[in-house]
Design a protein that fits this description.
Layout lengths: L2 H5 L1 H7 L3 H10 L2 H12 L9 H15 L2 H6 L4 H14 L31
Helix pairs in contact: 4-7, 5-7
Amino acid sequence: MSFIQQHAGGVFQKLGSNKLIARILAKQISKEDFLDELRDAWEDVITKNSDIEEGVKKAAERIKKSGYEGVFKSASITEDDLRKVITDIKNDKSDPIRAIHTPGRNEPCSCGSGKKYKYCCGK
């Protein structure tokens, strides 16, 4: 199973493994549905820090290597569409929430007073 098939499973389950049949079926699936399936499939692969242009380049290369280039053409999926999918995924990702360290009762206070936390800000 190719990278594209693994990461766009929903699309290819609908299209089937025969590339000729897949091209015919790709014309019947709306472009937005196809892109939504790609968005769902690629969501785990693309991070907030992913480079958009590099992602588009890699996606295009993988599509060509997988042999499904004709399917993407039949569905009228362009590099601009791939760029939009990757951009949408990046924009939907939030920055990780970092926990703020609270000193233990007997640790020095984080305010810098030199007192124990329990006698300073921990009251």
